[in-house]
Amino acid sequence: MLIKNGMIISPGTHEQYPADIRIADGQIMQISAAGSLERTKEQEEVIDASSCIVAPGLIDIHVHFRDPGLTYKEDLHTGARAAAAGGFTTVICMANTKPPVDTPETLADLISRAEKEDIRVHFAAAVTKGLRGQELTDFETLAALGACGFTDDGIPLMDTKLTETAMRRAKALGLPLSFHEEDPTFIDKPGMNRTAPAIAEDLLVARDCMLANYTGAVIDIQHISSAASVALVRTAKSLGAPVFAEATPHHFSLTEKAVEKYGTCAKMNPPLRTEADRQAIIEGLRDGTIDIIATDHAPHSKEEKNREDFFSAPSGIIGLETSLALGITNLVRPGHLSLLQLMEKMTVNPARLYQIDAEAKTGTVRADGIRLYGSIRPGCAADLVIFNPNETFVAGNYQSKSENSPFTGWKLYGKVHYTICRGKIAWNDRKS
Asked: Active site residue: 296, 309, 383, 429, which one?
């Protein structure tokens, strides 16, 4: 494959320049000045990337593919297809399926089936058996099988001593823990700011940041939503705690007022909060307090989301196919982040948290031994996204099985034209 006349953005090496790229055997083989490379074989596919950005394939560390058990909402294949349509070449699925990913058998089955997909699908295993928060799973066996981390996402861990023990065991394995931070003690009804106030999040964020500082375990604060929680993570980082934080596109794009307009398609856990909270999230993204943009892609059926009673409908929205565009539209174009910084939060930092090796075995390593995650250079795996940051599209016509998004009908900047994984086209908007 030959990609011509694209503008390379390589956040792992902090480079941006026009170039041609030759791909073979799943790797980037050659990079030369734009317009300088020509087809060497008749069967070599040529992609004209004029006016487009060529960036490392996006990585989403927080998705729900509902497989096994709830595949009427999404399954591995439709989830992977939605991810590819959004420019993602790697995703990490959460463990709150039915049954949850808390046994070697469930994990092994998922890993085996995921190998058939066009993108890289990884899995976090549950922290506790049955997601009940009482007894830890077999971390060692699950890690040996390929679990890339541990989470009870969707359910907070309320036992502090158990949480400390989980951190110590995960640290011994060199794997991260990801936390859903909402103390149910302070939640009247989930999904809305006035009935699920920020204090429910802030208390657990404070606890887990301090536990991470105490144990040295690497943790991820998932879908951060409150100004106080952003400040707590900033403080923890200043103390040297190995804390990552992620923000969703909906939390930096919408406020609690969206509930009035979009109803249950603006219901999620944690809920949308105030404009002050949204601005604090944007500032956290800008100053590096928040490392990662992750979708929390949460598909639900129309019947579930269309219930008359707001609080009886499930929480969550889909996000894979609008994430990049919302970042460009609401962060890059207003000047909050550069495009390079946005790519860093959607490639380099997610890879660092979950130690995803985005390079081929022969890939380069810097002299200091740090791998160049999110890089475009010879030897790296040919996982790429090609998009036009100035081209608009109307959100909708999703590849996901579900349509539960408040962004349907929005005009967004940043149309994805190609997603390439392992050197093969996983998504081509012209043939979709």
From this structure: 296
